[in-house]
Amino acid sequence: MPDSLVEIRELTKNYTLSSGLFRPQKRIIYAVNHIDLQILKGETLGLVGESGCGKSTLARLITRLEKPSSGCITFKNKNIFSYDKDELKSYRRNVQIIFQDPYSSLNPRKSALNIIKEPLTIHGLGDSKSRSETALKIMSNVGLSKEQANRYSHEFSGGQRQRIGIARALVLNPELVIADEPVSSLDISIQAQILNLLKELKRDYNLTYLFISHDLNVIRYISDRIAVMYLGRIVELALNGDIYNRPIHPYTRMLLSAVPSCDPGKRKRMVNIKGEAGSENKEGCAFQTRCPYKKEICAKLEPLLEKVDERSFCACHLAGSI
């Protein structure tokens, strides 16, 4: 089994919200709720779930753009929240992120070349000439030409802008790349091009990916293992094929039943789940108000993410019996 590159233990991030001017009582929202997760060296770990379930918050915690309320994240066996200044700078070189929106994530006042070589400048790597040479090489590797180097972001299409974002993430030669919904704003044909590019770059640069998406077809195409997230919790974790061929958690079944099929003759078993995410329940399973299989224990005891078999983990009291 590959070595673990990132270890997440009991990670929690909550926000305190007030109810309003005339109702000053406050409530706590758990964006990430006691998550345990490993990212193995060389793998693509897919993270899937509905909008608002905490996927991007987890990405921001791993990149240290936010600090947790509790818990820890270790990178190569050291807690990233205990780094000193020099260690943090080295960590930021090793862990990069590709943002969701290729339009707002690029500086409109800088050319493509300057955007890509900016991380080299920030980290003081090389001189001006070598930075430009490195940036041009990365541009070529992501499918951009030398003639496009001095163009500004508004002169590129959405797919080309995302290639610039990918080049910017790779220019420091990181070990871990977090791709936060990198194709969700692109046309379907462009999505396929970017996904194939990411696969090629993973092989060429020996990368590890945390790939975040709400699109199960995208996740299926690119991931080795898949973690399913619901209201800040990981509810299922398994190999790609196991998630799609024998899903265990009712929420995973719901997601899969909602994926449209290209085959009109293929019949799918729909999972009858009502309601919306955002339960205010303080106790028990977070999915209990929507689960068609709910038992008495589900309202009393929160299920933990536990091993179901040699390759699968699930947070459900009824795991294996549904």
Order of helices and strands: EEEHEEHEHHHEHEHEEHHEE
Helix content: 25-40%
Contiguous runs where pLDDT drops below 50 for at least 5 residues: none
Tally of strands: 12
Rg calc:
21 Å
| Beginning-to-end CA distance, first to last residue | 30 Å
Task: Give a brief description.
With 322 residues, the chain is α/β, with parallel strands linked by helices. Helices cover 30% and strands 23% of the residues. It has helices at 55-62, 85-94, 112-122, 128-141, 158-170, 188-205, 216-222, 240-245, 250-257; strands spanning 4-18, 26-40, 44-48, 70-75, 78-79, 95-98, 176-180, 208-213, 225-230, 233-239, 306-307, 313-314.
Descriptive overview:
The chain is α/β, with parallel strands linked by helices and 322 residues long. Helices cover 30% and strands 23% of the residues. The chain has an 8-stranded mixed sheet, sandwiched between helices. A 4-stranded antiparallel sheet has the order 2-1-4-5. α4 (128-141) crosses α5 and α5 (158-170) runs parallel beside α6 (188-205). The longest helix is centred in the middle third of the chain and has 18 residues, at 188-205.
